[in-house]
Design brief:
Elements lengths: L2 H38 L13 H7 L11 E4 L7 H7 L3 E6 L6 H19 L14 H21 L4 E3 L12 E7 L11 H13 L1 E8 L12 H9 L4 E6 L10 E6 L4
Parallel strand pairs: 1-2, 1-4, 2-3, 4-5
Antiparallel strand pairs: 5-7, 6-7
Length: about 270
Amino acid sequence: MSREEQRILNDQQSREEREHSEDIIRDRKRSKQMHQHEESGLELSQIVFIGRTFEEYMLMFDLTREELAGQNILDCPGGACSFSGQARKLGAHAVASDIVYQYGMNELGTKGFQDIEHTMKQIHAVQGKYIWDQFGTIEGLRQERLRAITDCVEDMRQHPECYVATVLPELPFNDEQFDLTLSAHFLFTYADRLNFDFHVRTLLEMLRVTKHEVRIFPTVDLSGKRYEYMDELKMFLENKGYLLSEVRTSYEFQRNAHTMLRIRKPSL
């Protein structure tokens, strides 16, 4: 074989190798995009965008206004809750994260108002599952839910950087970026859809980004029963050196949903 023929053959092989490599890269990108879609793809119609007020959070997590100032706080998932915006007004550095924040605030606002009206119609049939001391009536509940989403959407407009789209069990934050992480009506609540491994991975990720303490409310599922694997979960985290306690709070709307789980990092 002449040198020229060898050069042509080498060029052809190099071109084929480059094309093969490019095909592999394209396949990997396509696979990654499909995986990301599977992980974070969420149709807006699949969610219920309803939130709690700042005052409810203070009761659920046994907080005082004085202890918020100067604290870095994560609300995860934040949903349509007004806590982070109100906490910032009191001097906290608060961030909310949620998978739904991938949508625009106008879309979420419209969806949220629709969800409130739909939920209020449904709740008539299950009033006995709730304690009405705080809200009084369904109309009282409706007004508080409207206040929460109105405050939330307005704060989104003013501080969009404080609402971060995330897909649990991963969080895009630095180690110990927050002093305190709060999580309401997600873990334990949806135990029928979120398995034990997801609970563990999510809590470990929350603890990674938190310097002092993680608080989860409530400790029961939608039927009002204590999370089935709570003792196993507590043992797992305690074996890793975390300090855990179940604390009864002064908030109870869903019957038996009155206790939060506190997970503290040991002081060095």
